[in-house]
Amino acid sequence: MIEKTRLAKYLAHAGICSRKQASRLIDQGIVTVNAHPANHIDHVDDSDDIRVNGERIQGAAPLVYFAYHKPVGIDCKLNQTDSSSLIHHLPQTTRVYPIGRLDKDSRGLLILTNDGEFCNQLIHPDFHQPKRYLVTVDKPLDDNFCQTMANGVPVDKHITLPCTVEKITEYQFSIILKQGLNRQIRKMAHYCGYKVTDLYREQIAHLELTPLNLAENSYQQINKSDILKN
């Protein structure tokens, strides 16, 4: 007898989204199981009629991974009706979604995948995968800036985790984060009296954007091992 799988896990394995995102879809009421509104406690298998927005979902999809060079102006929310949405720039060969986000005004490396379990490995705070950014600000960095940022500053009622910050030029620094609060770097810089004028994500875990030589708004298929080394 085939063991049934919890619905959010099934949707993640089918390449629809991560488990966390699947739970949101269930909350939104756009998931049905055998013609009934889905419930978080539903357990399913391939014999069930599972639909998202009326489209039937069945079976685990082949797992794929892409590096994408996001330009400024593209919104990572997958909104079909928004002309600036990333959804209009995704590979057409299979359904994929971004791991984590970059805000609309930021650019650089995104990882696209349909591997929900792997997505959890990269974004869950328990795993602490590093992300490196190059950041330009509106005025010269003072002597205390890097140390203050590295020690942690208040952002949205949290004190940010200790991180690595290094001055690159008079107006630019690099920062390696192991957490991902909303617009975290911009808010950290603002707390220190600076405005971010350019934010570029260069690296996620072991994957670096520069060696890929990807033009902006282009993507390249990669291997899972390029991101997380064994």
Give the key terms.
four-stranded antiparallel β-sheet, Structural Genomics Hypothetical 15.5 Kd Protein In mrcA-pckA Intergenic Region, Chain A, 230 residues, Alpha-Beta Plaits, nine-stranded mixed β-sheet, 3 domains, elongated, alpha+beta, isomerase
Task: Describe this structure as you would to a colleague.
With 230 residues, this protein is α+β, with helices and mostly antiparallel strands. The chain has three domains: 5-57, RNA-binding S4 domain (Structural Genomics Hypothetical 15.5 Kd Protein In mrcA-pckA Intergenic Region, Chain A), CATH 3.10.290.10; 65-125 and 207-227, Pseudouridine synthase I, catalytic domain, N-terminal subdomain (Alpha-Beta Plaits, 2-Layer Sandwich), CATH 3.30.70.580; 131-204, Alpha-L RNA-binding motif (Alpha-Beta Plaits, 2-Layer Sandwich). The protein has six helices and 17 strands. The protein has helices at residues 7-13, 19-27, 116-123, 145-151, 184-191, 224-227, and strands at 5-6, 31-33, 36-37, 43-44, 50-52, 55-57, 65-70, 97-99, 107-113, 131-137, 154-155, 158-159, 164-169, 172-177, 196-204, 207-208, 219-222. Strands 7, 8, 9, 10, 13, 14, 15, 16 and 17 form a nine-stranded mixed beta sheet that branches. Strands 3-2-5-6 form a four-stranded antiparallel beta sheet, with no helix packed on it. Helix 1 (7-13) packs across helix 2 (19-27). The relative contact order is 0.16. Keywords: Isomerase, RNA-binding. Belongs to the pseudouridine synthase RsuA family. Residues 5-62 form the RNA-binding S4 domain. Its EC number is 5.4.99.-.
